[in-house]
Structures are given as structure tokens and as C-alpha cells.
Amino acid sequence: MSSLEQPVLDYTPRARNVAGFVALLRSELLLALRRSADIANPLLFFVTVLALLPLGVGPEPDLLARLAPGMIWVVALLATLLSQESLFRGDFEDGSLEQLALAPQPLYFAVLAKVSVHWLVTGLPLALLSPLLGMMLNLPSGGYLSLFLSLLLGTASLSLIGAVGAALTVGLRRAGLLLALIVMPLYVPVLIFGTGAVQAAVDGYAYGPQLAILAALLAGGTALAPLAAAGAIRISLDN
Amino acid sequence: MAWQWFHRLGSPRWFYQKTSAWMPWLALASLLLIGAGSIWGLGFAPEDAKQGNSYRIIYIHVPAAFLALAGYYIMAISGAIGLIWKMKLSFVVMRAAAPIGAVLTFIALFTGAVWGKPTWGTYWVWDARITSMLILLFLYIGVIALSRAFSREQVADKACALLALVGTVNIPIIYKSVDWWFTLHQPATIKFTEKSSIDPSMFYPLLTMVIGFYCLYAWTLIAHTREKILQREWRTSWVQQLMGGESATESKAG
Amino acid sequence: MQFQFDSLAAFLHMDGHGTFVWAAYGVTFLTLTALALQPRLQRRRLKRELERQQRIEARRRSVETRRTREAEPA
Questions:
Q1: Under 8 Å CB-to-CB from A72, ≥6 apart: which residues?
Q2: Which residues form the Cytochrome c assembly protein domain (chain B) (predicted)?
Q3: Structure confidence at residue B254 (pLDDT)
């Protein structure tokens, strides 16, 4: 143990992990908030692509209302995916990822902190913005709350799953398309239950079960995905 | 003592030499079984009352679909063995299993589409099983694409094993969710034949084909694994001896 | 158990489903054969590559021996 970690040594191992997690979360969040362009880009992508949809299929309100849940979800999925390539990239290139891997704290918490920050600056704003897009696409009034809640839960799962892909491809030069290729099939359940919740709400049914399943996927993902991503980071660092 | 065979199995050279004797027998068994099963299924099995002769595609569609899914588990399990016990051979098997599984998934999709045309009147339906198969194909393609992206084989091995394991955890969830999605969207116009008990006169040729496909899968997997072993171990003396028998003796004589 | 079709033509036609059945079987067996032959092609390529390497090695060795022979008288 180096002298730098003196204050932390007083804690039990578990408390030390939590303290490390919180510290990393704060510094990552601070870094992310300083690069405001990185936060804005996925949101602008989200809005731009959905603005193209009526230009592609025509401005009929009924047709747009039918497409709205699926399209908003698919574009939110793509926006999350596109922002994920750089999740570990900077840390990999400047060597701090290696430092994290060598740290006494499990890599699991470091990955969880980074993914949480990614969700806070991507998934959360997307969910907050979604009612506006729903309005533009003529989403029936029953669907707004379910759209917001399903995106809130679902994008967190997407961030977690995408982190595994980002960790696997972090050492590769052109990872963008490859990342999409390996992660997209794993997104399927989240997409199905996310759009399912919105569709059920629009049709006037209860959407609680779908949200419960999304929450279950998130719980499972929180437990397992950072483990897999941590393993993937160690593999990528070997490269 | 019980672990001795396990460690031996980890040696690519031992595997290569041991399997040399099995290969012709596996090839013979798969040729005989698939040949007999095809002729039986195509010519001798009775016609289906509802679907007519188009149902005869089942004799390749079902075995291919079985092995497409089983192949993913075989790939993931060998990847896991490689990660846990750091066994070289296991990674080679995993890498060999990926393209074979992708081809079998493609065959299952293709024969399903061709079967769908006379049965449902269309080549492609977003049916739960077809959609799951398509996603399985994407999972295979992901593993293959990842394996080609790395310049170092050892890193590619571990990365692919991890991705295959993540896929394995997800497959049941994907299948269940696609199933649920399909019941939600099932169009009323398309009637699917309900599950019915299959007559022995149709079942035995199918069983023959399934066993034949398993033999063929084993043969193909071992053949691809052997080839990859040679490619990876080409610097070793036993591969050089095996490959360049003539040139080696030549240089000794000269 | 008996052959279900009256003639070879009927066997190929299969009441109009022949195209589908034979296309499915044809494509399946073609792809499986290609998959089975792939290792053989790879081995041929590897063999060629090894022979090339050995030739390069032999040439380098002969050049080296010539050089040492030329160097000896001096």
C-alpha cells in the first residue's frame, strides 16, 4: 500500500470499494460534464434521425403514431450504441485503464462507475427528451409516461451491455461498426420489452409487467455485465 | 490419474495424432447416414397429408436447426474451458466451431424460407423461431467478426470466448423475449401447423438424418480444428515433418 | 415401405413442390461440401507456404556457404 492511500486504509474492504466507486463516479462525471459536446452529440443524433422519419415515410399523423414507439426506441438504441465506442477509449490510450486494472479495488466497481456516468449523460437525457419526440411523432397521449420510464430503465441496460462490447473492442483501431455488430443481437430483449411497454400503454393496457421485466434485465445486467466487461478489459490490455 | 487424459487432450499434437484414426470412420458414418436418410426421406417416407411433398425439407431443416443451436453451446463451452483451464486446444475448437455454426444457421434459415413459400405462400415470415434463428446468425457473425479483428491469435481467442459466453447467457432471454414478442404481434392471416405427434414412418428417417448430421458436424469440427492446429503450430518440428516429408529428407541428403 | 412416386419425373416434380425441395437439398449439400473441403484447401495453402519458406531458407544457407568459401583464401 502506498502512502497516497493512507486515508482509505482505515475502511473495511467493502467500504473501501464503495469509497473508490464514489470517487471515480464523481471524477468521471466531472470530466463528462466538461466535454459538453460529447453529451450533446447523441441527443442531436436522436433528434435529427427522428426528424428524418416523417420525411421518409410521409407526414400522415396516424402512420407516425403507429411507428413512434418502435422508431423512438430504435433510434435511442443507436444513439446509446454510437456514444459507447469512446467509453473506455480515452482511458485505454492514456494508460489510466491499466492503472484501474492494477488497483486493489475490483475492476467491477470501476466499470460500474464508468457505465453509470455514461447512462447519466446519455440515457437519462434521452429519456428526458423522449416526450418531445413523442409529441413530434404524434404519439398517443397514453404512451408518454411509459416511453419515459421504459427508456429510463432500458437505456441503463443498453449502457451495461454495450460496455462489454466496448471493452472487447477498445484495443482495436476501427471499433465502431464491429462494436455495433457484436452488441446489437444482445440488445434484442431490451428493445422488445421497451417497445412492448409503450405499445401496451398506447393500446390502453397495463404496462407494469414489461417495466418489471426491464427492471429485472437491468438488475441482472448490473450484476453480470460489469464482470464481463472487466474480464474483457483485462483481455484487451493484453493486446 | 483421472486427470491425465484431460491434460493430454490439451495438447494439440496429441489431438491431431489421435483423431487421425477416427476421421475416416466418422466420414463414412455421416455419408452413409445422411445418404440413407435423404433417400428415405425424399423417396420412401409417406407424403404429408396437409403440406404434400414440400414437408420433405424437414429432413434437412430440423437437423441443421438443432446443430445450429447446439453449435453455439459447443463453441461457448469450449471457449469457457479455454478461459478457465488455459487450454490451447479448446480455443482452437471454439474458433473452428464459429464458421461451421454460422453455415448451419444459414442452412436452417434458407431451408426454412424455401419451405415457407409453398406452405405459407411467402419466403419470409417474422415468426418467433425464424427471428430467433436470424438473431443466432447475428451472434455467430459477431464472434467471427471479432475473431478477425485482432492481430494476435491469443487475444482473439480470449475475446471470442468471452463474447460467446455473454451470448450464451443471453440466448435463453432472447428466445423468450422473441417468443413473447411474436405472440403479441401474431398476424391472424397466417396459420401455423400446430405441433402434432409425428408418425414413425416419418420419424425414423428424420432420426437417421439427425444422427447423420451430428456425425458430419463432429467430422467437420475435427477437420477444421486439425487444420487450425497445423496453421498455429507450423513452426514445430512435428508439423514440419508431417507437411514437408519429401523436402525434409531432400535437405538431409543434400 | 415402398417408393412413393410412380416415375422418376414424378419424383423430380413432387406435385409442384419439386423446385423447393430440390433447391433446399441442393443448397444444403453444396454448402456442406464446401465446408468439408475448406480444410483441404487450407492445408494445400499451408504446404505451399512452408515449401516457399524452406526454399528461402535453403537459398540463404547456400549464399552463406559461398560467402564463407570466398572468404577463406583471403
A1: A50, A130, A133, A134, A137, A139, A147, A151, A198
A2: 14-185
A3: 34
pLDDT band of residue B196 (cuts 50, 70, 90) is low
Highest mean pLDDT, choosing among A20-29, A113-122, B82-91:
A113-122
Is pLDDT larger for residue B20 or for residue C8?
A: B20
Q: Does A173 touch chain B (CB under 8 A)?
A: no
Which residue in B74, A220, B154 sits closest to A228, CA to CA? A220
Q: Is B48 helix (H, G, I), strand (E, B) or coil?
A: strand
Find the DSSP H helices in A94-175. 96-102, 107-118, 124-136, 144-169
The count of other CB atoms within 10 Å of the CB of residue B207 is 14
Is B32 within a domain? no
- Contacts across the B-C interface (CB distance below 8 Å): 101
In a domain, B47, yes or no: no
Using alpha carbons, list the distances in angstroms from residue A230 to A28, A165, A224, B156, B159: 17, 11, 10, 16, 12
CA angle B158, B164, B167 (to 5 degrees): 145
Cβ-Cβ contacts under 8 Å for B119 (sequence gap 6 or more): B51, B54, B193
Query: Domain range for residue B155?
Result: 63-188+203-232
In a domain, B116, yes or no: yes
Q: ipTM of the assembly? A: 0.88
Give how many domains chain B has, as a whole number: 1
Question: In whole numbers, what is the pLDDT of chain B averaged over residues?
Answer: 86
Whole-angstrom distance, CA of residue A21 vs CA of residue A116: 10
Torsion angles phi and psi, residue C13, rounded to 5: -80, -40
pTM over 0.90: no
H/E stretch holding A74: helix A61-84
Give chain C's contact residues with B (Cβ, < 8 Å): 1-5, 11, 14-18, 20-21, 23-25, 27-28, 31-32, 35-36, 38-39, 42-43, 46-47, 49-51, 54, 58
Tell me what the mean pLDDT of segment B216-223 comes to: 96
Whether the predicted pLDDT of A7 surpasses 60: no
